[in-house]
Amino acid sequence: MTTHPTDEKLMAYADGELSHQEAVEIEAFLEVNDEARALVEQFQRNAERIKAAYVPTLNSAVPDKLIDAVMSSPTRAKSTVIQMSEFRKSISKNSSMALALAASIALVIGATAGSWMTQLNPTTIQTASIALGPVAKGTPLENLLEKQPSGTELATNDEAKSERLLVIATFRDSKDRICREIEVLDDALGKQPVAAGVACRNAGAATWVVEGAARVKVANAASSTDYVPSGANEADVLQGLLNILGAREALAPNDERSLLDRGWQ
Amino acid sequence: MTGSETELRLQIVALLPRLRRFAFALTGRQDEADDLVQSACLKALDRLSQYEVGTRLDSWMFKIVQTTFLDEVRSRSRRAKDTVVNEDINAVGFDARIHERTEARADLAIIRAKINELPAEQRELLALVVVDGMSYQSAAEVLDVPIGTVMSRLARARKKLASALQDAAVHAI
C-alpha cells in the first residue's frame, strides 16, 4: 500500500471490520508508519476503556419494574402459551452448565408466577405429568423430589403413557428455598423431554409445590400441533429466563447429597 | 405469532442488560437510562405485531430505544438546560482527589462524562459499536444511515473523545 489509509480505515482495522485482504494491506502499512500504528493503538486502547466504563451497568441487576413491564404490559396481539423449544434439547446434553441453565428455566416460570403464570394456558401444562400446585404425598413425583438425587428417573403413575419423570438439578431460588427442576421424558419419542417444570420445597410444611411448568416443543413429534414456528432465538429465551430469576447455580452433587441426607434441612 | 409472544417478551428481557447499557451511554444517567428503556419497551410491546419474526430483535429494540431517546432529547431541549454533565464531572473530580482507591472508578466516570459531552449522534455510534460491540453494518441499520456515515461519524467521535481524555489527564489503564 502506497497511499496513507484514511483514519476511518485505520479505525475499521482496529475494530476488526476489514476483510482479510484489506487488513493485510493495513498491517504492511503499519509496519512502516509509526504514526498510523499509534493511532490504531489509540483506537483499540480507548475502545477498551470506553467499554469498561459501562461494564458496571451491564452487570448490575435489571430492576424488577423493567422486567415486569416487559412481561406484563399489554400488546395488541394476544398470546397465552409458552413454548420452550429447541434449547431444551440443546441444554439437555449433560454439561453441568447445561444443568444449571436447565434448572433455571423452569424456576423462572415459577418465580414470576404471580405476574404472568396465570396467562399460561392451563391445558398446555395439564398434558404433562406434572401439574401446577402442591405435589401430593406418596406420588412418584413427591418421592422423586423429596428423596432422589438429580439424575434419577421414575415412572409416572399413569400406565397409559410412556412418560417418565427425571429430576435434573437442585438449586436455591432468590428466597433461599430449595427448588428442583424436573422433566417429563417420553419413551415413545426417544426419551425426549416433553415438559419441564420446577418445584420448590416449603420448608415448614415439608411439602413440594410445582411453581412452574411448560411443555417443551418436541422435534418430529407425531402431533404437529406441538410445533409453533417462530424466529425465537432459544439462547435468548434462556437468557431472559435467567435474567428474570437472577438464578443461582445448581448445587454440586455433594452439596445436594448432604442436603438430601438431612431431609433438606 | 400467538405462541411466540411470551418468547418474544423473554427475549426482550434477555436484551435488557444491553439495552440498559446502551441507554446509559446515551443518557449518561442510570435512572434516566432505566426510564428510557422502560418507555422503549412499552412502545415495543405496543407494536410487537410489527416486529418481523426472523429479523434481528436486538436491532429492532435498539432502534426503538434510540428513537425514543431522540424524541426525549428534542422535547427536553425545548424545556430546560441539562446540567447533569457538569455535576457529574465535579463529583468525579472530588472523589478522585479524596479517595485514591476509587481512582479507577472515577476514571471510568470521567470517560462516561466525556462521552456525555459528545453530540447525540456521535454518542449513539460509540454506544452501539464500541460499547455494545455491534458491527458497522448493524449500527448502520439501527440508525438508518449509510455505513460510510457510520465510519466517518464514529472516527470523529473517537478522535474527539481521545483528545478530551488526554486533556482530562485521565490515568491510563
Query: What is the radius of gyration of chain B?
Result: 17 Å
Chain-averaged pLDDT of chain A: 71
Distance between the termini of chain B: 48 Å
Shape of chain B: globular
> In CATH terms, what is the architecture of the largest domain in chain B?
Orthogonal Bundle
Describe the protein:
The complex is a heterodimer of chains A (265) and B (173). Helices cover 44% and strands 17% of the residues of chain A. Chain A is α+β, with helices and mostly antiparallel strands and 265 residues long. Chain B has two domains: 1-81, RNA polymerase sigma factor, region 2, helix turn helix motif (Rna Polymerase Sigma Factor, Chain: A); 83-173, Winged helix-like DNA-binding domain superfamily/Winged helix DNA-binding domain (Arc Repressor Mutant, subunit A, Orthogonal Bundle). The model of chain B is unreliable at 80-103 (pLDDT under 50). Helices cover 77% and strands 0% of the residues of chain B. Chain B has helices at 5-27, 30-46, 57-79, 84-98, 103-116, 120-131, 136-143, 147-167. In chain B, α1 crosses α3 (57-79), α1 crosses α6 and α4 (84-98) packs antiparallel against α5. Chain B has 173 residues and is an all-alpha fold. Chain B starts with a helix and ends in a 6-residue tail after the last helix. Classes of the chains: A alpha+beta (265), B mainly alpha (173). At the A-B interface, α1, α3, α4 and α10 of A face α1, α2, α5, α6 and α8 of B.
